[in-house]
User: What shape does this take?
Amino acid sequence: MGLLTIIKKQRLKDKEIRVVMLGLDNAGKTTIVKSLLGQDCSTVSPTLGFNIQTLPHAGFRLSIWDIGGQRTLRPFWRNYFEKTDFLIWVVDITTDGNRLEECRDQLKVTLTEDRLSGAGLLVWINKMDLINGDVNSYSTVVDQMVELLELKQIKGHKWLVLPCSALSGYNLIKGLDFVTEEVGDRLYRYT
Amino acid sequence: MVHVPNTGNTPDSLEDDYKFSTRSSSEMIDSMCDLITRLVQHVQQEQKPSHDVHSGQIEKFTENDLSVLVSHLDSFQELPQLLDEYLPTLVSQLILCFSSSGDDVNISLRASKVFYTLCKVRGAKIVCRFFSSDITQLVNIITWLENQVPNKSTSTFQSTWEQRYVVLLWLSILILAPFELESFGQDTGERVYNLSLNFLLIPGKERDAASMVLSKLVTRTDVKRKLLNRLYLDISKILSDDVEPRNQIDSFSILGCLQVLAQTLQLVDIESIKPYLSVHKAFLMTSQECDNFSNSQITKLKVKNLSRLVSKYMSLIPVGNNEDQFLPEEVEEILGELFDILSHKDTIVRYAVAKSMARIAQLMQGRFEVQVLEIIEGIFQCFDYDVYKTPEDVWGGVGTCIDGVSANLWHGALLTLAELLRRQLIPISSLSRLVSILENSLKFEQRLLVHVVGANIRDASCYVCWSLFRSYKDLPSNNLLSILQNMIQLACFDREINIRRAASASIQECIGRQESTIIGDLAVLLDGGNFEESIMSNKLDLIQALDYNTIGQKAKSFTTVASKVYDLGYTKSLTEFLIQRNHGIGSWDPEIRRLSARCLGILSSKTSGNFQEYVRRLASVYANVKNSISEYELRHGILYALGEIIGAKLLTHNDYNNSNNSLDNNIGLVVQTTILPILDSVTLENLQDTNEFYFAESFLHLLKSVILFIETMIVGLRDELRQRCIDLFFRPLPTSPLFRLSKVNSCLKISHMSIRNEAVDLIEGCSPAYITRELIQIWFDGMKGELDTTVTSTFAAVLGGIGEGHPQETYHLVIEFLALFISTKKNDTLTRSEAVKSLARLLLLSSIENQDRLLIIEALISAMDDYTTDDRGDVGSWSRLQAISGFIALFKRFPSFKKDFFLLESESMHCILLKTKLFRLAGESHDKLRLLSYQCLVELNDATAHILRENSPNNLTWKISVYFQFMAKTILSKDKETVFLPYIKTFLLGLVSTAGAIHVSKDSSEVCGRELMLYMSSSVRIFNTVIEFLKPTAPAPTDFRVSGKFINKREGSTLSQFEQKVSLCALRIFEKFFDLGLTPPVEEETVCDIPDGAEYTINVVQYRTLYAKIFNMHINTKNIAGRVLPSIRCFEGISQLSCNQLERPNQNLANIVKIYSLQALRRLVVLTKHGAPMVRERALESLYIVLQGKYNDILEDDNHEEYGLRVEESDKIIALLEESEYTNPPEILAENAETYMAYIEKMFAK
Assistant: This one.
């Protein structure tokens, strides 16, 4: 018995869900986390390292690893034994075409990681508050994003695309619901 | 559905197993569902009437299926929740099988085994939920269980424990039935109580389930009034029973009682239990004597009970005004008890106490803040016992000495702190105290007389840090940084992999969660200074450097990881850790000292300042410890580290500084003024102390670096300057460099492997000037000395370190000496094999003349025939191995060597001879030898090598079956005979020695045997060759004489011993050959000439030779089991041969066969009179078999004129044989034998 075993057991007991939040820089990842934690969102500067925030939701403890957008992330995944349960991918709706392609490629590469096998995927289309138009028109945005990111080709991951806004808090809780439902169903069904 | 591999014994199943281990979880679940469905079908089929038409189509569920299913389930042990989705179906199907299995005991048995495994993997409580709650089963189950209750008179059960376990678990669900128990029968409650109490007191697994049943029963509202009271009465009887020393069984009943008590406490409501609380506490407090059984499980359960009791007591306190309330006395008492158990010798108990204390503290939080603080204070005080201050030491500081503290107490206390922190119960104001404890505990190590403790304490300290970082926000940075620093040291340099990883996990939490405070202050740690811009990304780099997988390897952590961490700026903490007592280069573990030294070497070359600083520090510490007896570890570490530091300097010099030929003058000065004096201060007495071989090792290590350093210094200097330079370095010495090398010689006399390696490296680096004839003479004498064989072999090894540039006479002298040494069989085997290795090294030198090179090659070839054995086994294989490796190294180093060097041209005598040996070794049973021989054959790069290479199978894993199949096919197949012809015989020699060997793995003898039989039964040449291996008497040594005068001086051929062994192997092969009912091959189609023109072209099986050889094998020997018995089997086989079995009989051959089959039959008759009972028995048996077979021929031949008579006589003989016993008196045996003989002569000799 040692710390490593304790961590493993503790995780099961606490119903901890390890979520990694990624996306290109300036997509609004840290703002989303701050908004969820009810903190002040007006003073977010680029994340250079990473932050772990714990967020209780629907009886689970979500450990959200918010990782800066501009670093090569690959080696990071291999970091220790804890498997990542869920991947949140944040996209900025105002992103132009080239960047979106980069975004798609990054997502594809990331999903091939061993440690992410079977993990659920939530794509948050952030900054919807900057777009004119009512909520009903959002479904076309979602469809476009599914096309752009070629999500239909993904196998082995349950996924969902949600338009959201970090500033207004729109669809943030709904996203977390998806996370806990997906992971809870898969890993914590009877605990 | 996924196909489930059968795990039979076919070769394919191995590969299936391999696939099976890499399956994904979903595949395994599919396969499991498949299996369970089959189990269900099997059950249904059993129940159907037997005339059902389709019943035959369903596959049965076998024992094999069961083991596959169980092993699938077991592989979910690490992540059992992956099974959850399938649990309801799995469990309901299993229950179905289990309950409807009817009379088929096997099915319910297998179902219960699967059930148990499922409970083990996923946890009984969770699996239980899916049991059917069909209460109509309740009465059946109770009745069944009552019949299984163990009673004192018969201790045998009618069922397996898995079955009882599962049924009890099921009962534990059914007992929750929401009806009055009375409605199932008047005394149902009583019945369940009685039976489960019985199961509660036994040592088996049923106890766990029984306690679940019992606790649920007694807390039922309808019966609790009656049964709860009874439970406490019964338990008090059991616990007070027989207070005298309890035996093992009794401790299980205590265990059962405590289990049920704990579970009852959890389930029961406070009002019902209130009257029993004090009794309950009394049980726990008086069951003190349990500890005498050293049964930690009991203590752990006691802790569990105590903690639940507290929660009951706490719930009794009325909610109201806080100030008026007092903590119940009982709680105080229990806390005191827990503190006592905190330092229990077992981890599970300590951890249970830690969790209990934290839970209690949490219960008290808010209402009894003062008491919570008291608990924390109590825990803190645990770290103050037996700590005393140490006086100022060489490190210049006053420290605290924790050598006397109780490691168990510290561990327990740290776990408690971690649990408290996790619940945020420790006020932030205590942080500085916590940090000062961590300062000590993160480095904790206690050296006891024969072992070291403390790893668990460092691990628990990491747990404390981990909890701290997770549960608290915005910790003050000054405290954090010192912890972080310690943790980086642990992650890089701890000896234990788990602790390196635990530290890395804690660092992640720290950096990820304490960001706001750390960012600004990280610069304090980074003593390099201006890292402002990279600080933040630096944190991520740190985590990447301390990667979970990379730090899994000790060597990598100390080198690559530490180097990366250093580059990130964490310089000081690393250096400080490495240079200290008890850690780093002062560690008790020599491996850690060496690794630390290597790390210092790497770090020293990072900046120019490091080199000087490290050397200065190490030298000053050395000055303090050089005369202290107890600091031998540190001395080893320091000298080793100095060696590494100079070595690293040379490495960077070679890498970057090639244009500039001289090293930095300052460094030369440092070596001259600091390091040479250290080397010279080492006395011969120091080195000769055999108990301190590490010191000698480090001395050699340092001297090696210094010598290399001097060599590098003087490269490119003119002669006169060079001399001046050497003089400068050696001036302070009384004599020449020899003086230092004389110290080396005394090191060589220390018996240890690491000394040998260091010494060889050192001699290799020495320039020829140092290696004088006198020195070499000393080494010669050392090899012949009467010392320990490790020492003599060390002397043999250093001779191989002689490098280029010596005069030819020196080489000649050494080579002659070594060759002679190898060929003298009475010399020690280990030393001989080292001598072979040394010769192989010398072969690579370019300054050796061809004449000498020839000597070496001949010596190496003859070493391949070293088959010396002693009580350690095949010790000759060491020499064989070194010789082959020598040739491989030669061919790799000089790919064109064979062309340039006349001796190894492909058709030369030496080359053929070498290949002959290699082909033999390529068929041997020694795995490594075999593969190396193959490699060497390929490296030869000639015609045979090409064929071998082109046809080699793709997977070079060389499973033994793949290898032999490939080799036999390549070498023995007819179409390739021309190239391999000269080597078939020697390859077969190796193959026979493997296939017929007794002491060899079943795998290799089977695989080899299969191939051999295949080719023996198809090729006359191969069959005849194996016949040749039968050598009843020891052959005369066959040495080859080309030029070497040493080769033929061998005293007694070791090869002949090998041939003796092969002879026995060949006999066993023939025995097996005939046993399998194989027939010798017929004429060969083509006959090839072979290059050396030997008489080899025989196209008919040599029956005459076969018979004669086997005849000779079985006479004049005492070796009944090895020679006589197999020979009888062979005679049996030969006498069963007839020309009818040959495909294309030729009259001449038919006659020969007939003659020898008759001869063999006669021989069998003679052997029925043999002196040894075993021989008589076997001979009678064989004779019976043969005559029985011939009798059938007679029966078939009903056209024969004397048919009736022949049958009649044969009947008589068979009857006589059936009656004969080998125990009959000799005269009867002799008489019978005459009868048989007469019969045989009459029937077959015509």
Summary: Strands of chain B lie at 388-389, 400-401, 446-447, 452-453, 579-580, 583-584. Chain B has a mean pLDDT of 80. The interface with chain A takes residues 81-82, 84-85, 87, 126, 129, 347-348, 351, 456, 459-460, 462-463, 466, 470, 498-499, 501-502, 504-506, 508-509, 511-513, 515, 536-537, 539-540, 543-544, 547-549 of chain B (CB under 8 Å).
